[in-house]
């Protein structure tokens, strides 16, 4: 994807073959959001990888990762395969949407894999910024399949300060949930 990220092929596929409704006008700024939207699709695909069809993230078939691999392997190009799989996640297997919209289907947040949509996404974003100790999860395209996208503790702290005006409390979860080693202390009672 990065190989063609600023060329005409990507934008032809994105705007026409991916059925994205609103044109991406500022390519340099929007490519980051587009890559996050695609990454979120694959994250949801992995979370919904059940042996049976599910609808809690999207109307997905059983074994959706296997279905996605077959779609990518049989597509006319790698980019088209990526488009087909992303569309399956956001448009489901019923295909009722006439177009896709990365701006409404993906909200950037403190968790680089996405926080969902609507009020729930804002709540999770705040929790990630203030309470949840998620592993630092950038991507480097060496140990994962995603384009390089750094997401360091300093970047998360800056985002959280700018968005919510909060600083993460790394010990919050252990304090609220009885601290480290609580089970051992419980056995000694």
UniProtKB/TrEMBL annotation:
<keyword id="KW-0732">Signal</keyword>
<keyword id="KW-0325">Glycoprotein</keyword>
<dbReference type="InterPro" id="IPR029058">
    <property type="entry name" value="AB_hydrolase_fold"/>
</dbReference>
<dbReference type="Pfam" id="PF05577">
    <property type="entry name" value="Peptidase_S28"/>
</dbReference>
<comment type="similarity">
    <text>Belongs to the peptidase S28 family.</text>
</comment>
<dbReference type="InterPro" id="IPR008758">
    <property type="entry name" value="Peptidase_S28"/>
</dbReference>
<dbReference type="GO" id="GO:0008239">
    <property type="term" value="F:dipeptidyl-peptidase activity"/>
</dbReference>
<dbReference type="InterPro" id="IPR042269">
    <property type="entry name" value="Ser_carbopepase_S28_SKS"/>
</dbReference>
<keyword id="KW-0645">Protease</keyword>
<protein>
    <submittedName>
        <fullName>Dipeptidyl peptidase 2</fullName>
    </submittedName>
</protein>
<keyword id="KW-0378">Hydrolase</keyword>
<dbReference type="GO" id="GO:0006508">
    <property type="term" value="P:proteolysis"/>
</dbReference>
<dbReference type="GO" id="GO:0070008">
    <property type="term" value="F:serine-type exopeptidase activity"/>
</dbReference>
């Amino acid at each position: 994807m990065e190989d063609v990220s600023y060329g005409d092929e990507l934008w032809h596929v994105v705007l026409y073959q991916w059925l994205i409704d609103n044109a991406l006008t500022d390519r340099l700024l929007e490519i980051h959001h587009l890559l996050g939207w695609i990454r979120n699709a694959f994250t949801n695909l992995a979370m919904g990888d059940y042996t049976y069809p599910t609808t809690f993230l999207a109307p997905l078939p059983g074994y959706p990762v296997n279905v996605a691999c077959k779609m990518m392997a049989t597509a006319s190009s790698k980019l088209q395969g990526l488009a087909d799989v992303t569309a399956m996640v956001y448009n489901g297997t019923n295909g009722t949407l006439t177009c896709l919209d990365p701006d409404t289907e993906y909200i950037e947040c403190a968790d680089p894999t996405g926080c969902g949509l609507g009020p729930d996404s804002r709540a999770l974003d705040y929790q990630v910024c203030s309470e949840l100790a998620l592993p630092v999860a950038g991507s480097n395209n060496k140990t994962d399949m995603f384009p390089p996208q750094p997401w360091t503790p300093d970047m998360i702290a800056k985002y959280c300060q700018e968005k919510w005006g909060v600083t993460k409390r790394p010990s919050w979860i252990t304090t609220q949930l009885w601290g480290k080693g609580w089970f051992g202390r419980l056995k000694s009672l």
